[in-house]
Structure formats: structure tokens, C-alpha cells
Amino acid sequence: xxxxxxxxxxxxxxxxxxxxxxxxxxxxxxxxxxxxxxxxxxxxxxxxxxxxxxxxxxxxxxxxxxxxxxxxxxxxxxxxxxxxxxxxxxxxxxxxxxxxxxxxxxxxxxxxxxxxxxxxxxxxxxxxxxxxxxxxxxxxxxxxxxxxxxxxxxxxxxxxxxxxxxxxxxxxxxxxxxxxxxxxxxxxxxx
Length: 191
Description:
Order of helices and strands: EHEHEHEHEHEE
Radius of gyration: 19 Å
CATH class: Alpha Beta
CATH architecture: 3-Layer(aba) Sandwich
Largest sheet: 5 strands, parallel
Low-confidence stretches: 168-191
Structural class: alpha/beta
Oligomer: single chain
Strand order of the largest sheet: 2-1-3-4-5
Strand content: 15-25%
Shape: globular
């Protein structure tokens, strides 16, 4: 670690329950070992999205990591976690870990309700930092007809741009002066 870097926080993760949904046997083994080094003892590992959802429903983990690539549809698994009636915790934090990091895929994962996105290859430090981020800055969850997942707005600072959300306020808390948009049945408010 560089002497200018802040040290990583130390948490007791021994009671956390984590589910690792990963296609590749080597990556499953690496993730399990890394998580054990963090002190985690309740680690469930599955190799298919179907088995992962069954395990998710039976153990109700505190955190889920999901692979996404050819022959492993991590986004479908995420959609089941977020929207299936059988899901015991639709707001569980989910970290997607994938080598497929094209901008379009990041947007698809974000729009499906991912909590954190981690590009492979990963380091133990990066995994730990993302777990710490989940612990230290839990995000409010949003549920609409078309989206279930964490609030995408991470920055809490003053926003000086035009407020486009319905019912929103400008940064100086004055009501915005904007013509209301006419909506039809089933329309979602603009983001």
C-alpha cells in the first residue's frame, strides 16, 4: 500500500452471509478463498443462475456477487432477485463482477438494479473496497414500474443544474418553474 493511501477499514465480516454466483470454477475458488481471508464464514457458491436463485431464496444472503458473460446470464439472475415474487430480499446489495465492461453493458447492469460493478481481473483489495462501500454508504432503493434497485444518485452535494424530476426542488429549495408534462395512463415520470 502506498504511504499516501488511507488504510482500509477493518470490519468483522464473520456473520455476513454471501452468495457467489460464478460460472468459472477457478474464479469461484478464488472468490471463496478471498472472502474467507476477509473473515467470512457463511459463503455459498453456485455455478448457474438457476442454482444461484434457489440458494438465494433458501439462505437469504446479505450480499450477492454475480458473474455476467457468455453462458451465464447474470442480468437475468439480477432481475429475478429484484422482481420475482419468490425473492426473499429484493433490495439485497449485488456486486456484478465481469470481464465484459463495455459501456453499454455497464448501463444494462445499472438499469437492471446492480448495486456495485467490478471489472475483472479483480484484486482482493477491490472486492473488499466494494464490500466496505456497501457497508459504509447504504443506498436507498427505488421501486417503479420499470426499475427496482439502488438510487443511482450517489453525490449528495449541491446541484446547480435544472431539476428535471417531478416534484423536485432546485438546489436553493425554491419550487422549480417548469411547465408540467402531460402524462397518459402508464407513463413513468421522467428521470
